[in-house]
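queue> pop job 88
queue> type: inverse folding (structure -> sequence)
queue> payload:
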């Protein structure tokens, strides 16, 4: 056999073995990673002329978030910490006056993305979860169409079993002495570093607004005698810049948990493609501390009283930072950075002070001793 041919065959063999082992390694890595993720095993859609319900079945809890995109108008719902079973249908045509096309895909190694082509406004859809029971898996439900005034779908989910609240740390002891003095309070300004968060009406960034509010709130709380634990005090990621989303969020939880904080408040800005959408909402994890809803209500009412934003209600959610902290924990969407008037407040010194004051007043009410 000529030497040239011999060398050629040897190189082909080496390349083939290399390709085989590389593909095997990638497959092995995916199998290892997917074992820690929730499997999305089915997507089910039902519709009438006015409403569409989309249900994602999973073998365990997932975090989810929704946001709007324009040109064309779409609503995006990300199921985080999840992978999509290859058997799941990924493209749906819907007979509905508001929605006609829905797409599902594995957006990243640990995120399943649902994209709905629609011009519906933020008030016209709702996303919530239903725990697994003896006959049904864990479900993320997405309702589009008429939504009731309290932010929940008019089509109610089947009653979910009561989830026992996780023991509070340090529990009811946080109310032994009324008031803020002596309390340990964890403040989490959302996003930061290479994660800008939502982009505002005039290109302002959520990460800057949340940090300004957080730092102003820190001073108010310390002046009142509290010990304040900040997840960040500068424009930086909390974990390494190359960390995954889950690692970044866990780093924030770790700071609060290791400090044994009495409460945890994550500050965020909401956003939507329709710039007229406005208001304040707060979220708590339904399976967490029994005091979280009270804290969420107090902070939401405090912001609204201080800033006079519309009331979008207190809701349950599976946001990672409120699900993986050991104390009463909430996430506050203080206002819409996509709304021109609310963005002006979020980017002004006076507005920043009002938002911080509202959160402070809510915390003070929570610790007032009448819980």
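queue> result:
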């Amino acid at each position: 056999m000529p030497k040239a041919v011999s060398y050629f065959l040897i190189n082909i063999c080496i390349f083939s073995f290399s390709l085989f082992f590389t593909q095997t390694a990638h497959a092995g890595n995916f199998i290892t990673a997917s074992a820690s993720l929730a499997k999305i095993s089915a997507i089910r859609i039902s519709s009438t002329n006015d409403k569409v319900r989309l249900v994602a079945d999973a073998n365990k809890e997932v975090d989810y978030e929704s946001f709007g995109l324009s040109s064309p108008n779409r609503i995006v719902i990300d199921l985080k910490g999840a992978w999509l079973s290859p058997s799941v249908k990924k493209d749906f045509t819907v007979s509905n006056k508001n929605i006609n096309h829905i797409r599902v895909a594995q957006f990243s190694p640990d995120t399943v993305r649902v994209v709905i082509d629609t011009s519906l406004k933020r008030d016209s859809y709702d996303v919530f979860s239903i725990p697994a029971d003896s006959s049904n898996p864990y479900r993320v439900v997405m309702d589009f169409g008429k939504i009731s005034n309290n932010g929940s779908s008019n089509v109610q989910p089947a009653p979910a079993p009561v989830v026992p609240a996780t023991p509070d740390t340090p529990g009811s002891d946080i109310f032994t002495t009324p008031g803020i003095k002596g309390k340990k309070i964890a403040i989490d300004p959302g996003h930061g570093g290479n994660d800008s968060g939502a982009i505002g009406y005039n290109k302002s960034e959520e990460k800057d607004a949340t940090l300004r509010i957080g730092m102003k709130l820190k001073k108010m709380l310390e002046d009142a005698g509290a010990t304040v634990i900040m997840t960040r005090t500068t424009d930086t990621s909390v974990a390494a810049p190359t960390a995954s989303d889950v690692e970044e969020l866990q780093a924030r939880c770790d700071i609060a948990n290791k400090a044994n904080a009495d409460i945890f408040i994550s500050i965020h800005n909401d956003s939507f493609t329709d710039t007229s959408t406005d208001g304040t909402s707060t979220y708590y994890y339904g399976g967490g501390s029994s005091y979280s809803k009270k804290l969420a209500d107090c902070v939401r009412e405090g912001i609204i009283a201080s800033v006079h934003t519309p009331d979008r209600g207190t809701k349950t959610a599976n946001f990672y930072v409120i699900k993986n902290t050991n104390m009463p924990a909430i996430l506050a969407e203080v206002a819409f950075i996509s709304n021109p008037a609310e963005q002006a407040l979020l980017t002004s010194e006076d507005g920043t002070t009002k938002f911080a004051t509202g959160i402070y007043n809510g915390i003070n009410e929570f610790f007032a001793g009448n819980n």
